[in-house]
Automatic annotation (TrEMBL), chains A, B:
Belongs to the HypE family. This is Carbamoyl dehydratase, hydrogenase maturation protein HypE. PANTHER family: CARBAMOYL DEHYDRATASE HYPE, HYDROGENASE ISOENZYMES FORMATION PROTEIN HYPE. Residues 37-149 form the PurM-like N-terminal domain. It holds the Pfam family AIRS. It comes from Trichlorobacter ammonificans. Residues 161-312 form the PurM-like C-terminal domain. SUPFAM superfamilies: PurM C-terminal domain-like (SSF56042), PurM N-terminal domain-like (SSF55326).
Amino acid sequence: MNDDLILLGHGSGGALSHRLLDDLILPVLSDRSAEQNDAALLTIGQSRLAFTTDGYVVDPPLFPGGTIGSLAVHGTVNDLAMMGARPLWLSCALIIEEGLERQLLADILADLRRAADGAGVRVVTGDTKVVPRGKADRIFITTSGVGVIEHSLAIHGGGARPGDRIILSGTLGDHGMAVMAAREGLPLDGLRSDSAPLWSLVREMLAEAGEALHLLRDPTRGGVATTLKELARQSGLLFTIDEAALAVTPQVRGLCGILGLDPLYVANEGKLLACVAPEAAEAVLARMKRHPLGERAAIIGTVDEGEAGRVRMRTVVGGMRMVEMLAGEQLPRIC
Amino acid sequence: MNDDLILLGHGSGGALSHRLLDDLILPVLSDRSAEQNDAALLTIGQSRLAFTTDGYVVDPPLFPGGTIGSLAVHGTVNDLAMMGARPLWLSCALIIEEGLERQLLADILADLRRAADGAGVRVVTGDTKVVPRGKADRIFITTSGVGVIEHSLAIHGGGARPGDRIILSGTLGDHGMAVMAAREGLPLDGLRSDSAPLWSLVREMLAEAGEALHLLRDPTRGGVATTLKELARQSGLLFTIDEAALAVTPQVRGLCGILGLDPLYVANEGKLLACVAPEAAEAVLARMKRHPLGERAAIIGTVDEGEAGRVRMRTVVGGMRMVEMLAGEQLPRIC
């Protein structure tokens, strides 16, 4: 491995990404705590805002359940929602490869607009660049989002407390496997990205839980495993999850089996992990199950004192194994 | 020309860009007036904010006077400043081609950080994606910015009034020609990008002019000519400029001559155009000349009633000619 060059794995969201972050990216940020969360907190007058950005380079740009356009809306509004912020405004910057079919661009932009309307956000500013053929791959979209925090809770990635229940809002890996199947021309058999805007679900959870809601995070790049590992580190606690509580669709399980992938490391784009105080967990779970995006929500584990930053999993056969971060890159360009 | 494909000229900032905007991009924006200006206006509580985004794809990523990192800061903070907003926060999304030299990335990010510090803004959130070799060109950076408007003036691209004096803050085309020379390996002979953050100059102008400051815009893609044409259209007025009042360095004039380019269409990244009420124009100009970024500022023309949206130029030989928008793309990837 050449340490002098940037590798695909540096964009995986896993261990290599974290090293690049620590070495090169975090020193650029003016507030080093910001990069640990999905969005930065801004205070203006009496208002608390959340501000976030993500670049989308998904290949292919159209996949079952969405396009790079809707994904660029959902991913960014979800980053705001994970701070407990109501998404309000989006910016949208396009980098287009010369020769892109105009109709494809129109379809992507229409899907982006539909997704924004569905998420209740307004696309208020944009930019378009075109680069020569061969200098980009059809289309990349970077969206930034601004949302408002209308409560006094502090919801962030380091907020877990001992005793908290860990809730996952649904099935693992749907987005990653749908994109993978579309890219490789594999049979879809009902595979579909779960790409969706999570604010309306978060709003329900906030209303139910209030101060009992300690942490939210959407498991995107690196999947649930990598995300849990990040959260355990940020919170300085031990997370224990039950394999038996994890839901995976037969389609995702089947394709993962064929490709030798672990669904625990495959991205979602419409799911969330939450840490909730034990006394409120069942009520929050019940409320989530009444929401279309939380029908398959489950308590998948608990937060404990113990070895800080570790995640362990009770396997279905009764063993206990450590869960580590994604090491390299198993699925490039899924978002 | 194939109407079904996106062409390089669609990213030029000129006539083709405007057509793409009208046909495909504006329908996506929730507020169609936003795209006419450099930034969107947001109201939150008692505060007025400006919000903007730009993607940077400059080739090469290092050029005399800057890098894609500092350019990504200056371009975006200037879009805020052109709305009369004080730039406060930036987001930064990197799309990196696999195989980029780590040292080059470090240099670019260090330059980005220096530029942010110099402009008084904080980089508060970011994202990094890596795409396979050949799917991008080294590095693209998209920054978004949030600024605060601390006055009650309405400064926008449609704000010009009959009688206004048009002020240009310095020489034409410095950024575009420096990038061009660096890309083509031409002798630089003192060519240097003018990439710079303009807020401190705008603050002086606001202090001097108050309500007499009607319009601000930085002439980037498409140069001063295309920008004036946009502003004349937005304001619904006739702009008349004096060729003799336009400043061009000998280096820019020389290289433009060799390449057959018109400096009036070559981008700046550290200059601004302003429309100022006649009674305040001389005082504003004097104040600008005392600022390092306005030393070569000049009144270059006037705003008149007349054919709405037209720009005409009194040539040095005494003729009058119409100025049109950049038609295709004369200098791709200069920002």
